[in-house]
Amino acid sequence: MGRQRQMRRTRFGLFLMVFIGMVPLAQGSELTLRQGPESQTISLSDIESSPLIHVEMRHPEGPDGRFSGVALDTFLADQGLSNANRVRFVAHDGYTTFLTPQQRREKRYMLVTRLNGEPIALADLGPFMLIVPDDVAAVLQGTEPMTRWIWAIQEMETR
Fold first, then answer.
1. Contacts of 22 (CB under 8 A, 6+ apart)
2. What's the CA dihedral at 27, 133, 62, 112 to 10 degrees?
3. Is 36 helix (H, G, I), strand (E, B) or coil?
4. What integer pLDDT is reported at residue 28 of this predicted model?
5. CB atoms within 10 A of CB 66
6. Contact 146/60 with Cβ under 8 angstroms?
7. Measured between alpha carbons, how far is 148 from 97 in angstroms, rounded to an integer?
8. What is the distance of C-alpha 54 from the center of its chain?
9. Each residue of 33-66: pLDDT tens digit?
10. Close Cβ partners of 110 (under 8 Å, ≥ 6 residues apart)
11. Strand pairing partners for 55?
């Protein structure tokens, strides 16, 4: 698993070097939300219309500070997707992870939209991240996996 994570980081770093050279960092604060054949683009302000929550932390991949965003379940409810059987997250580099309703009940996931009050730049793993605030210390200590954490999210798909 360590080698796969390292390869992912390397690919992501190479992707960022190319992507940052082509697109301004302020761009991309939109999330594509797919449900079956239907697709919509959700803006940062639409996401943040759900109540914001905050956590001070250091992300295991580097960024440090005040992470702000919305509870994933609240966001899904606001979008009419509370009963989704599966939520798939897709990062800019193609990495994906899935959450089932049971996994969403086991942990409080947070869809991070800001770092230190600003939209998250691609260089800081943005524009969106999925984290588990209650697991931060355990993840940093290596006693809890971060297999469901994902960053540089560009798309969510529900089924």
1. none
2. 0
3. coil
4. 57
5. 12
6. yes
7. 6
8. 14
9. 999 899 999 999 999 999 999 999 999 999 999 9
10. 53, 55, 67, 69, 70, 71, 72, 130, 131, 132, 133
11. 67
Q: Which residue from 95, 89, 117, 98 is spatially nearest to 31, judged by alpha carbons?
A: 89
Tell me which H or E stretch contains 11: helix 2-22
Residue 129, amino acid? M
Distance (Å, whole) CA 22 – CA 27: 11
Return the closest-CA partner of residue 43 out of 141, 110, 127: 127
Amino acid at residue number 121? A
Q: Are 125 and 61 contacting, i.e. CB atoms less than 8 angstroms apart? A: yes
Using DSSP, state whether 62 is helix, strand or coil.
coil
The length of the chain is 159
Low-confidence residues in the chain, pLDDT < 70: 1-28
CA angle 74, 96, 72 (to 5 degrees): 5
Which H or E run includes 9?
Answer: helix 2-22
Max CA separation in the chain (angstroms): 41
Q: Report pLDDT for 36.
A: 87
